[in-house]
């Protein structure tokens, strides 16, 4: 037995060389191989939980096949591009074209948007809209907790189901694991079609890697109203009278872009159930009387390219005057960091707002470890006094982004996310007002003071940077 274990200590690292090297960056492959060499058994288990591309390749093949089926079934009118009406020299037009090519979602005119930055107000509005639903209610959330807010939403869904309105709920299997108990069963018993996505149960059919999560937040009601943004279905301290409160941002949208958001739900619904959304009310004819051009951009680990990262770099590279980013975490990869640095060198004001106290302290500490290179690159960093969870970006006076994604490697490369690009001065001014409010409730990081931090803190930051590829 001892001879077998000794042999395995050498056989496992050697056998894993071609496996770990395939499909990983050189740095990623080397990190896995070093870990497996020093800890063969632990490394082997963790690799197949978090690092293997075998699961990724299987998921990608299945995802692409299902995506083709959903999009061929869905009303192709949602893919019909509408004239944007801007010269091809303008940044927002070029970005819209690139977004269409990468995400296969054309820009759509005629939308209206409402920014809601109070979590209590979001839940109240959503529940009111569910109460008026006549054709369907669709919810897709990373976290749907069995708590006060979760039960309020569940009761609203049960009320709609009792009126004969089909209610479909899809949640991430890991993020919403609290629903595996009483509340999930309660919803099913009341006629709500409740499904989990990205299973972590080895006995379930659609097993996936633990680090591949569906991080989207989306509600679609009657195919005419949609909500998306940073907020999950969970109870948080949303008391806006307190600076230390939790700050989320959701948008409530109407108009043609709702069809794109419905398509996103339909794709994840099919991944969870192998069922297509059918019925004339799924993609209704929508009013185009609004004034805001928009594009929905679903992204995920099965994409053939790094869509969201590439679009962020394109937006930053096109900036002429000012970029504001708000995010609970900011751990950029090298290419995005360089793009921000180059924007600053061009004279663009680059401002980053993150919470002083992140809800995940380790991730927050890793984000701070990158501050010095960001400061050296000309980025102005602000610590929000509350728990800022809003995930936004504005570029000049022309482009706005509201997203479910954090500005970190997990959201850019591993999570399924949903972003909404909004174009035009009026809508960008509205987002800028909210971002300015976040800055007003923040403290600016003093570059000189930050660089004077102790040797111990500097050493800690250098060590924490090593965690960046996995956070």
From TrEMBL:
<feature type="domain" description="PLD phosphodiesterase">
    <location>
        <begin position="210"/>
        <end position="237"/>
    </location>
</feature>
<dbReference type="GO" id="GO:0032049">
    <property type="term" value="P:cardiolipin biosynthetic process"/>
</dbReference>
<feature type="domain" description="PLD phosphodiesterase">
    <location>
        <begin position="384"/>
        <end position="411"/>
    </location>
</feature>
<dbReference type="InterPro" id="IPR025202">
    <property type="entry name" value="PLD-like_dom"/>
</dbReference>
<feature type="transmembrane region" description="Helical">
    <location>
        <begin position="33"/>
        <end position="56"/>
    </location>
</feature>
<keyword id="KW-1003">Cell membrane</keyword>
<dbReference type="InterPro" id="IPR022924">
    <property type="entry name" value="Cardiolipin_synthase"/>
</dbReference>
<dbReference type="GO" id="GO:0008808">
    <property type="term" value="F:cardiolipin synthase activity"/>
</dbReference>
<keyword id="KW-0812">Transmembrane</keyword>
<keyword id="KW-0472">Membrane</keyword>
<keyword id="KW-0808">Transferase</keyword>
<dbReference type="InterPro" id="IPR001736">
    <property type="entry name" value="PLipase_D/transphosphatidylase"/>
</dbReference>
<keyword id="KW-0677">Repeat</keyword>
<dbReference type="GO" id="GO:0005886">
    <property type="term" value="C:plasma membrane"/>
</dbReference>
<protein>
    <recommendedName>
        <fullName>Cardiolipin synthase</fullName>
        <ecNumber>2.7.8.-</ecNumber>
    </recommendedName>
</protein>
<dbReference type="Pfam" id="PF13091">
    <property type="entry name" value="PLDc_2"/>
</dbReference>
<keyword id="KW-1133">Transmembrane helix</keyword>
